[in-house]
Amino acid sequence: xxxxxxxxxxxxxxxxxxxxxxxxxxxxxxxxxxxxxxxxxxxxxxxxxxxxxxxxxxxxxxxxxxxxxxxxxxxxxxxxxxxxxxxxxxxxxxxxxxxxxxxxxxxxxxxxxxxxxxxxxxxxxx
Length: 126
What we know:
By secondary structure, the chain is α/β, with parallel strands linked by helices.
């Protein structure tokens, strides 16, 4: 069965590019353009994995992640935080909030695919 990924990303170009690349890798994609929509779609779509941009509008990716992880229906969905800021504090926050992993932008596709496959139990982490 095809695995479904929810990409929460407010930048249309990033959403389009990453979405197409993941579809070519065989994933079903759904998209949210901001934190509130991401939280709602986590529950309505029940994806196998969420890629969460951290730098979103009024509700950032940390807050959206916290809400998804605090909902018993969606708490078990692995979340990979995506951020343009490769800072140790971001990694610490993502771990504390329950993210399965963390990756930096611009996305390194082979590295991100390794993390996605690891989170979905499809392959060992690189």
